[in-house]
Structures are given as C-alpha cells and as structure tokens.
Amino acid sequence: MVRSVAIIGAGVSGLASIKSCLEEGLEPTCFEKSDDIGGLWRFTESPEECRASIYPSVFTNSCKEMMCYPDFPFPEDFPNYMHNTKLQEYIKMYAKHFDLVKYIQFKVRNYNLTNR
C-alpha cells in the first residue's frame, strides 16, 4: 500500500519535501496557492493576498555553497551572492531536474485533506 503525503507550498522546502517523499516510496501531493514554484523567492509585481513577497532588488545574504540543495549544487557560473531572479532560476532547474512539478497542484486556496 502506497502512503499519500500532503505538502503545503512549493517553495524551497516544499520541493525538497516532494523529493524526499519520492525517495522514501511515498506518494506526495503538493498544494501551492500561487501559479508557480519558488515560494518567498518568487517576485511578483503586484502583491498577492496572504503572501509575503520580496523586493525586486533583493539579493541573497548567504553564499551559494550554503544555500544549495545538497544533491544539486548551483552552476559554477552563478554568482556567490545572487539576485532573487538567479535563485528562482536555480529553484526551477532543481524542480525540472528531479521532475517534481507533476506532483504540484497550483492555485489551491483551500486544503481539504480529509478522506485522502
């Protein structure tokens, strides 16, 4: 019997959770209220209801060696401290490399997890 797991949010941690579930033989479904991955690192021009956002000028304050997924290092040509757009690019590369997007349901506003 395969066990189902609900993951809330397709940010950095949500994507890592999807991957970990798959490695353990679990069946993850990630519920994301927006229309894209990236969580707090995804900049949007207009504010979204109930979602914190970053400024368009935000750079990371940790070096890329400390911020990377352990099994997916940043490309060598990425700067050590990067603009949010580069980090978002990396997050998308990670999701694509491990084929994680197919486990995400986008634009989900209410999480009714009963009877799953």
**Total strands:** 3
Q: What's the story with the biggest beta sheet?
A: 3 strands, parallel
Poorly predicted runs of 5 or more residues: none
Q: Please trace the helix and strand order, writing H or E for each element.
A: EHEHHE
Protein name: Flavin-containing monooxygenase
Enzyme class: oxidoreductase
Keywords: FAD, Flavoprotein, Glycoprotein, Monooxygenase, NADP, Oxidoreductase
Organism: Phrynosoma platyrhinos
Structure write-up:
It is a single chain. Helix content is 26%, strand content 12%. The chain has a 3-stranded parallel sheet with strand order 1-2-3, covered by helices on one side. The protein has 116 residues and is of the alpha/beta class. The model has no long low-confidence stretch (mean pLDDT 92). The two termini are 13 Å apart. It is built from 3 helices and 3 strands.
Any descriptors?
flavoprotein, 116 residues, alpha/beta, 12% strand, 3 helices, FAD/NAD-bd_sf, Flavin-containing monooxygenase
Topology:
Elements: E1 4-8, H1 12-23, E2 27-32, H2 64-67, H3 84-97, E3 104-106
Parallel strand pairs: 1-2, 2-3
Task: Give a nutshell description of this structure.
It comes from Phrynosoma platyrhinos. This protein has 116 residues and is an alpha/beta fold.
